[in-house]
Every structure is written in C-alpha cells, then in structure tokens.
Write a structure and sequence with these properties.
The complex is a heterodimer. By secondary structure, chain A is mostly helical. Helix content of chain A is 76%, strand content 0%. The chains are: A mainly alpha, B alpha/beta. Chains A and B meet through helix 2 and helix 5 of A and helix 2 and helix 3 of B.
C-alpha cells in the first residue's frame, strides 16, 4: 500500500468530524470560551492586585495564554474521544469500519479535527480575553508551535481514550481524573517557580506544563524553562502518544473483534 | 474467480471466561452474479461470518476473499468491492440523508457522486427526504438510507444482513425490486434473513448454518426436492397421537406433518383417525423452504 492509498479518504472523514462539532458549535466552541472568560474575570478580579508573576505583566494578562492553552487542550481531547465513544455506543462507527480507510487515514482525520476544534476554541478564548487584558505577542512562532503540538497530542490522547472506553462513565473518569488534573496542575494559573520544590518537580513530569510554558513564551518572551527544552519534551510526548494511538487503530483495538 | 470465498473459517472467542466456538471450519464459494441466501437460527453464526467478510471481526483461522482480494491482507480492495447493509438500525444524528451519503462516498475516495446518490434516493423512495436530518426519519426510512449507504460506491458484491427485519410490506417490496434489479445487472448478492419465503423466492442457492457449522449448501430447488415433498396441513383442537408429535410443526391450531407420497398421506390420516383426533381445513401441499429449514435444523435431512 503506497502513501497515497494509505491516506485516501482522509479529507472526507476530517470534514465530517469537523462538521460534527461545528454543527453544535454553540456547545463545542461557545461554551468553553464562556468558561475561560469566567475564569479570567473571577481570578483576575481577585488576584490582579496581589500577584505579579512576570515583571511588568499584570496577573490578568498572565492568565490569558494559560487559559487559551487549557481550553485548546481540553477541547482537542474532547473532540476525538467524544466522537469515538458516541459512535461506538450508538453503533454508527460501523459506517467507517466498513470502508477502505486505513489506520493512518483514521488518525489524520480524527486528530486533524481535534486540532481544528482546539485551535477554534483557543482562538475564541484569545479573542475575547485579549479584549479584557491584552497579553502581547513577543515570539508568536512559539505560541503557534505549541498550540499545534498541543492539539495533536491531546487529539491523539483522545483517540486512545475513545478506543479504550466502552461506556460514557469510563470516558468521564479519564477526563476528570487524568486530563483535568494534568491541565490544572500545569501552571495555567501560576508560575511553577512559586511552588514548593516537590510540586515543582511534580510539575516538570507533566508534559502539559511544557505546553503551557512554551505557549506563554510566545506572548511574553519569558518562560519558566527554556522553550527548546519544552519543545523536545512535547515532541517526544506527541510522538509516543501518536505511535500508541496509530498502533491501536492498526490492530482495531476494541473496534474490530 | 468467485465473488466471495470462505475457506475453512473458524472463529472462537472468550466470553465470561468460557471459550465459545462461533464458527467451525466453514467453507463455501459464492459465484459471480449469484443471489445467495445464508440461513440459520439466531446464534448460528450468520452475522459473525458476515462480520468476518466485512472486516468487522477477524477469523481465528481460514481465509476469506472478495473478488479475489483477501479481506485482511488486501482489505482496501476487498472493502471497495463490498457493500454491506448492517443488521442494526444505526445512523449518524448530525447529518442529513444527502450529507450521510456524500460522507460515505468520500470514505471510498469518490467525489462528486451526486448523480448516483440521486438515483439511489429515487429508487429507494427517499427523494423527498434528501435534505431531512437522519433523526427525523422513521425506522423504515432509516433502513432505506442504510441500503443506499451500502450501495453508494457501486460495489459488485452486496451483503444484506436481515434487511427486512421489522419493516413494512411496502419497503420490503421496494427493496426486493431494487435488489433483484441490481442482481440482474450483475451484482452478486449475499442475503441473510429470517423470512424464508423471501429466500425461497429470491435466492439461487442457499447455505444453512447451525451452531457455527454449515449443515446444508445447495440450489434452492434441490433443497426443496431433497426433503419430504408433501406436507399435510390441518387445524385441530385435539391432542396429536404420540407417534406423530415428534415430526409435527404446530402454530396455534395449525398442524403440519411431512408425508413423502400418497401412501404417506394416507398413513398420517389413518393415524389421526385411530387416535381420535378431529381435524378441519385439511390441505395437502408442497413442502416450502420453512419445512426444509426446520427438517435440517432438527437433523432430519441434509
């Protein structure tokens, strides 16, 4: 099977997956934007006068990139995982299983749609929050690089969760006990420099920390760790998670008996 | 080259800590252009066999080909040659009928397929529902869309897994008219159904599965000729004589008993009379596929 045969049908499946969330965009894009704005208003109002993480950067402005990235990551994960689990439970995954689509085409389409949703939500959050507290854009290439890698990593992780979960409560457990803590404990609301040593060490084991720190670098030109270190960690995590999800798709894990 | 070839297919799986043998050494071929019926009671392995053919399940051992393409090694070519109407009434609630069919065309690498989609919609009586969301359709309409989805890439081999389960008479007629036309145009059709009169009317050849084994495989006419060719049918409120009970097929008040020839008919009637069984609405007729099916499933004929 050559590369062209291997990825044939990717675009129609990608388009379908994008339309799937776009048709309910009030819920899939609008709601996370509103949630992020509420975080910004509440935390910004309470802490603006008390916390200065980076010199010369207000706390509300500091929050903006973290909230953008957190929303991007959570929604990229939600897109592939919810699409797969819904299709598995309602049975309409059979329409894709019966086609000649390869595991590579599945991966590209599902992860691609996750990336599109993640970027759409991230752009929405940035557009609204930047009106309240413009964060600047010192090194935009870093912001873009980590946004794309974050969408791919979480889209691929969502694929694994969607393949693994057999029930909605298993998916909710994955989301609530793994994705949510990892995003909240990654420095969205604070700089890890302000944490006790043990929690700093724990944060450095969390790939989401590098995503948010690298993304924030794009806005302020400063970060807790060197952005190249963050890039290396995030690239490694993305390759490992993508490799696992491609393998599971290739063997038809829990979708072909 | 056969349209479909099953060679020594075995499927075992573990359920609740127990090893279940769903299929045991099943082998048969379906010729190009044939209308083939696969029959068997619930749990016989029909859907498992079709799932293996369609790539939804993997055989434990054996080989399946579609138009000469191995369904595992050359799965892309095999699936392009195959259109499957699944048994379950499933749909994607986010899309309209036309969007659903366009999406499905795209998965097979077909762009700008609207001419064929319109033709399918017309033949399946769906033209006025083309822009309706799938959620708004009745069960029968959703079933028609399933058929259209299976045919959207013009596959030479069509598999219908109990397509008329729970659908009204009009849809059945529409569907059989359309599928019979496709078969006349050269498409190979593999049908599983519980409606044996449909299989008798449509299928050139029939295979019967029982507990995962192929117990009958022949032309429909040969199967009908190979069992008791005459059936005695009557109604009664009385108990049947004990000697007739094992071979009787009883539906409410209606009793059917096999009899090979005129002497057999006389013997059945004499046994009923001697047993004091009062009968009414007596008919003597040809055995149908249902009689053959029951005889084979009860191990009385091959």
């Amino acid at each position: 099977m050559n590369w062209s045969q291997s990825v044939s049908g990717t675009m129609p499946l990608l388009r379908k997956e994008v339309l799937r969330f776009w048709k309910v965009s009030f819920q899939t894009v609008g709601a996370p934007v509103l949630t992020a704005v509420l975080y910004l208003l509440i935390f910004g109002h309470v802490l603006e006068e008390h916390v200065e993480v980076f010199k010369g950067v207000g706390y509300t402005a500091f929050l903006v990139p973290g909230l953008v990235m957190m929303s991007l990551l959570q929604n990229a994960f939600a897109n592939s995982s919810s699409s797969l689990i819904q299709s598995k439970i309602t049975g309409n995954l059979v329409f894709v299983l019966l086609t000649p689509l390869s595991h590579r085409a599945w991966f590209l389409a599902y992860v691609g749609a996750s990336l599109v949703r993640g970027l759409a939500v991230g752009a929405g959050v940035l557009a609204v929050t930047a009106l309240l507290a413009p964060p600047g854009l010192a090194e935009p290439w870093w912001a873009l690089t980590f946004a794309v890698l974050g969408g791919v990593l979480l889209g691929a992780l969502g694929l694994i969760a969607g393949l693994w979960a057999e029930k909605f409560d298993q998916m909710a457990a994955f989301q609530n006990f793994i994705i949510m803590p990892m995003t909240f404990l990654s420095g969205v609301f604070y700089s890890v420099q302000s944490l006790p040593d043990i929690w700093q060490t724990a944060s450095h084991l969390n790939p989401f920390f590098y995503l948010i720190d690298g993304f924030r670098r794009g806005f302020f030109g400063v970060s807790d760790v060197n952005p190249w270190t963050s890039l290396a960690v995030v690239l490694t995590a993305t390759l490992v998670v993508s490799g696992i999800s491609l393998h599971l798709l290739r063997i038809g894990y829990k979708i072909r008996s | 080259m056969s349209a479909i070839s099953f060679q020594n297919i075995t499927k075992t799986y573990v359920s609740g800590g127990r090893t279940v043998q769903a299929l045991h050494d099943v082998s048969f071929d379906i010729a190009q252009g044939e209308f083939f019926g696969l029959l068997g009671p619930n749990g016989a392995g029909k859907t498992t066999l079709i799932s293996i053919l369609a790539g939804l399940a993997r055989a434990t051992s054996g080989q399946v080909t579609v138009q000469g393409h191995d369904v595992r090694r050359d799965y892309q070519a095999a699936r392009r040659a195959l259109g499957v109407v699944p048994q379950e009434l499933v749909f994607d609630p986010f899309f309209s009928v036309r969007e659903t069919l366009r999406n499905q065309s795209g998965y097979f690498g077909i762009r700008r397929n609207d001419d064929w989609i319109d033709e399918l919609l017309t033949h399946l009586g769906l033209s006025d529902k083309a822009e309706a969301n799938m959620r708004q359709l009745s069960g029968g309409m959703k079933r028609r869309v399933l058929v259209a989805q299976a045919l959207v890439h013009k596959p030479p081999v069509i598999v219908l897994d109990e397509p008329t389960a729970g659908v009204d008479v009009e849809l059945r007629q529409t569907l059989w008219h359309f599928v019979a036309r496709l078969n006349k145009e050269g498409h190979t059709v593999l049908l599983t159904t519980h409606y044996l009169e449909e299989a008798e009317a449509l299928c050139h050849r029939i295979g019967m599965l029982k507990k995962g084994e192929l117990v009958a495989l022949d032309r429909t006419s040969a199967l009908l000729a190979g069992t008791a060719s005459t059936m005695v049918r009557f109604k009664t409120d009385d108990a049947l004589p004990a000697s007739l009970q094992p071979q009787a097929r009883i539906t409410g008040r209606v009793v059917q008993l096999p009899a090979h020839d005129a002497a057999g008919v006389e013997q059945v009637l004499a046994t009923l009379r001697e047993g004091g069984c009062r009968i009414e609405d007596l008919e003597i007729g040809r055995a149908d596929l249902e009689d053959v099916f029951l005889a084979i499933m009860q191990g009385q004929a091959r």
